[in-house]
Design a protein that fits this description.
- The complex is a heterodimer.
- By secondary structure, chain A is α/β, with parallel strands linked by helices.
- By secondary structure, chain B is α/β, with parallel strands linked by helices.
- Chain B contains eleven helices and eleven strands.
- A six-stranded mixed beta sheet of chain B has the order 8-7-9-6-5-10, sandwiched between helices.
- In chain B, helix 2 crosses helix 11 and helix 4 runs parallel beside helix 5.
- Chain B starts with a helix and ends with a helix.
- Classes of the chains: A alpha/beta, B alpha/beta.
- At the A-B interface, helix 8 and helix 9 of A face helix 5, helix 8, helix 9 and helix 10 of B.
Chain lengths: 305, 304
């Protein structure tokens, strides 16, 4: 059972190197991440992008990329289509975004999933490692679906449960988050929770449990209790998967690692393998962590774990 | 300049006693009010069952500080009496007490007999940063479900009013969205861009409003720089304006539970400050919350 980001790093060293296409590593932080990931044995990179720019940043970070396969590309969508296409054709195990907008990568994945007829909705799973919590916590969808409807949320849960099963959790706990309060009537996000709770009880998401609480207060303090002081907070009660109401909420909360004592790591699990989607503002250390996570999940997907 | 919860308490003490009207207070309310009274911030007017209230009061230090007890055994009548006292100018701060938030806010927002003053009544959560002396506001974290542009403008005005009372002359505002780019498919980014443009034309006075900003750009100048966003707002935000209440409420909770950040909150846009009992505000900070409310009625004369 994978309980921490360190577990991912440890297993990635054992299971690597995996062939990984990097989409436009034309920024020092991304290239530095590729360098470190190669040096520790996570990956064998295939570099797709503007060759001149890639050579320049590689030189700046002291990385000899002469020995790796390089595929020239300038148009960002074309670069993304090519890399994701290679993942779906089985030519490589993982794709990682470089310094290009993530929307291009999502578009490529959506097209490839449609072509493959997988029926898989694309969604992003963003893990938090929280001190004092004995498992990784995943927010989803933090990247693709702007305002997911009930159908999309069902698929978002399916994707996240699939990832947790790969991580060795036979029955992950899921919270469907909502800003539902005593005032303001019933929010659409709360209506979705009620419907998803029923679906889970009918077994629609396979082995998982949707918890009753929809807010952090409900989850961490228990129903109807006020926080006299912080000692009342039961942080360890946080479920494995937190389904956010919409993209705004997901993205805003999951990137609080810039502020809080948590570590963030994101990925997209496609039907053919993981796609690493670091934020364009992420730094190399964080990107390496995200690559390690993808290496492990790629390995487990290949083995049909 | 008020930079911390300690500053809020100090300033409130200097402002002298304010009358806090509390319908149907519970034991916890009385304990918190007792502490606020001991600090010289409030003299409570407690409305409820006189006999049991006096018993509770006798078990705390409140009995030795100025307070009043008004006998009223019916909850609805207690609420009506509380609102009437506020409207008559006999109370400075209205507290939720033992009533439901729905009942209290229903009465506060009543067009005929309520306390609405600004175009929109909103809620601001105020957090104290842990690593340096600074307060940040996040709004609207409780009252408005899905504000449109007009409402967001009013929510921002309410928050700016509060921030200026705290001594921030030119508040730096991040209008949050999922991404920092204006994306026609993401409505929050459009509202953010318009509010930012309005600020550029000085429609919010001296406030510096940047939007859309995703949270990483808002929190870190380095992160913003890597995304090509150059702004004095990034990395030093005073007010975070959220797109809707799912985000606002969950964000406020996340900062408390995962960030252990001290938090308080206040209703804005009313004739006098209103204090709600949100479950994630600690007892210690509920005293600060009363102090903040007292401060807004001292300095602003009103609350919106």
């Amino acid at each position: 059972m994978i309980k921490s980001l360190a577990d991912f790093s440890r297993i990635a060293r054992e299971k690597g190197p995996k062939k990984l296409a990097v989409l436009a590593p034309e920024d020092e932080e991304f290239m530095k991440a590729v360098k470190i990931s190669w040096e520790v044995g996570y990956i064998e990179p295939v570099l797709i992008g503007n060759e001149e720019k890639m050579e320049r940043v590689a030189e700046r970070v002291g990385f000899d990329i002469g020995k790796f396969r390089k595929i020239p590309g300038v148009d960002q969508q074309a670069i993304s289509d090519l890399g994701v296409g290679m993942l779906f054709s089985g030519e490589l195990s993982i794709v990682s975004k470089g310094q290009i907008p993530t929307s291009y990568v999502y578009r490529s994945i959506i097209r490839q999933e449609a072509k493959a007829g997988s029926g898989m909705t694309v969604s992003v799973v963003t893990f938090w490692e929280i001190p004092g919590v004995d498992h990784l916590v995943a927010f989803t969808d933090t990247g693709v679906n702007i305002k997911p409807d009930l159908k999309a949320k069902r698929e978002i849960i399916n994707n996240a449960v699939f990832v947790y099963h790969l991580m060795g959790y036979p029955r992950p706990k899921v919270a469907v988050l909502s800003g539902q309060r005593e005032v303001g009537g019933v929010l659409p996000s709360y209506r979705d929770f009620l419907a998803l709770k029923k679906s889970a009880a009918s077994g629609d998401f396979g082995e998982c449990e949707v918890v009753d609480a929809t807010s952090f207060t409900g989850i961490l303090l228990g129903g109807g209790v006020r926080m006299k002081d912080y000692s009342a907070v039961r942080l360890e009660e946080i479920p494995h998967i937190l389904v956010v109401p919409c993209l705004d909420t997901g993205n805003i909360i999951c990137k609080l690692d810039f502020f809080l004592d948590v570590t963030r790591s994101s990925l997209v699990a496609t039907s053919r393998g993981p796609v690493c989607v670091p934020a364009r503002s992420d730094f190399s250390e964080n990107i390496v962590q995200q690559i390690a996570m993808c290496v492990v999940l790629a390995d487990r997907m290949e083995k049909g774990a | 300049m008020i930079d911390s919860f300690k500053d809020i308490l100090t300033a409130a003490k200097q402002g002298g006693l304010k009358k806090a009207v509390v319908p149907f207070p519970g034991r916890e309310d009385i304990e918190v009010l007792s502490r606020a009274a001991a600090l010289g911030i409030v003299s409570p007017i407690l409305i409820g069952n006189e006999k049991s209230l006096k018993t509770f009061i006798g078990k705390t230090d409140l009995w030795s500080y100025p307070h009043e007890v008004l006998d009223e055994k019916d909850r609805k009548k207690a609420l009506n009496r509380a609102i009437a006292l506020m409207r008559e100018g006999k109370g400075d701060i209205l507290m939720q007490g033992g009533l439901t938030q729905r009942a209290l806010m229903g009465a506060v927002l009543d067009k005929e007999s309520g306390m609405k003053k600004a175009r929109v009544v909103s809620y601001a959560s105020v957090f104290q940063l842990l690593k340096r002396e600074k307060l940040i506001l996040v709004t609207d974290t409780f009252l408005n479900n899905n504000p449109g542009l007009v409402e967001k403008q009013a929510v921002l005005e309410n928050a700016l009013h509060l921030d200026r009372l705290l001594g921030v002359e030119s508040p730096k505002v991040a209008v949050l969205a999922a991404v920092e780019q204006v994306n026609p498919g993401i409505p929050s980014t459009l509202d953010a861009a318009i509010l930012s443009k309005m600020a550029e034309r000085r429609q919010f006075g001296k406030a510096l409003v940047e939007g859309p900003l995703d949270i990483d750009c808002a929190l870190s100048q380095a992160a913003a720089g890597r995304k090509g966003v150059q702004s004095v707002v990034t990395g030093n935000v005073d007010i975070y304006l959220v797109p809707e209440v799912d985000t606002g409420y969950l964000l406020a909770e996340a900062l408390v539970f995962f960030g252990k950040m001290p938090a308080v909150g206040v209703v804005l846009g009313t004739t006098k400050p209103v204090v709600l009992a949100l479950p994630f505000i600690s007892d210690e900070n509920r005293v600060v919350e009363i102090a903040l409310a007292s401060l807004t009625c001292r300095k602003g004369g009103d609350n919106g």
